[in-house]
Amino acid sequence: MFSCKSLFQSIGLAGAMLLGLSSCHTPTDITYFQDLDEGTRREVSAAKELVVMPDDRLSITVHSKDPQLATLFNLPIQSTRIGETAASGMAHSNQVATYTVDTYGDIEFPVLGTLHIGGMKRTEVADYVKRELLQRNLVKDPTVIVDFMNRSVNVLGEVTRPGRVSIDRDRFTILDAIAGAGDLTIQGKRSNVIVLRMEEGRQVAHTIDLTNANATLSSPVYYLQQNDVIYVEPTDVRKRQTTANGNSVFTPSFWISIASFATTVLLLIKNW
């Protein structure tokens, strides 16, 4: 027959096991790229450089051996003061105005007029402007530099610094965005990072498992595009923290208290 003594021993053993498991368990869901070993090679998805989209702001500057000729194609930011002429005010500014791409993918460029640059890469825009200047015999030796001025992605959820992260290169990866946001917090679910992207007028959700290098590097959203939204889902432990006693049942102290209560009840029954 099962005695109270053996029951006490079983309860004590169970409590010790629970305490040991909770203190010695090493989580494996917080480590990146767990499938990588020394010398491991993985295929990376094809790089997709950023392309011009409506509402983008671009800086386009033209350089030439003849500076006065080049200024005809560079719109400076006017910063006139009271009592100054427009020309003198422009002389104080070394900055160049940006061009905002309209809904049709067009910009209005000095002398050249309307240029359709929607869907072009940064280097393609520079080549296009240079070619137009040469074909129209406007500049003999143009050098055109194009930069995106407002490229960014949004990083939300369980990261150190949620918010907008600027895109500072043509090939910008999800790892760059996460690094720019200060990395995931310990409460971020690395196995289910969501990337929202506009594709053909629709918002499409992609998921990336950062604990798996192969899944990350081969993902179609490994290289980000402007206006992508990265959302890091909180872990179940983090979610339960939103309630008063959400995680109490999973703590060693909870089960030790249960074991202690059960032992007390059994002692009272034995002595009754």
Measured as a percent range, the helix fraction is 25-40%
Q: What overall form do the CA principal axes indicate? A: elongated
Question: What is the terminal separation in angstroms?
Answer: 19 Å
Oligomer: single chain
How would you sum up the major sheet? 5 strands, mixed
CATH class of the largest domain: Alpha Beta
Number of strands: 10
State the fourth-level CATH superfamily of the largest domain: wza like domain
Radius of gyration: 31 Å
Please describe what this structure looks like.
It is a single chain. The chain has 272 residues and is α+β, with helices and mostly antiparallel strands. Helix content is 30%, strand content 22%. Strands 7-6-10-8-9 form a five-stranded mixed beta sheet. It has a three-stranded antiparallel beta sheet with strand order 2-1-5, covered by helices on one side. A two-stranded antiparallel ribbon has the order 3-4. Helix 1 (4-24) packs antiparallel against helix 8 (252-271).
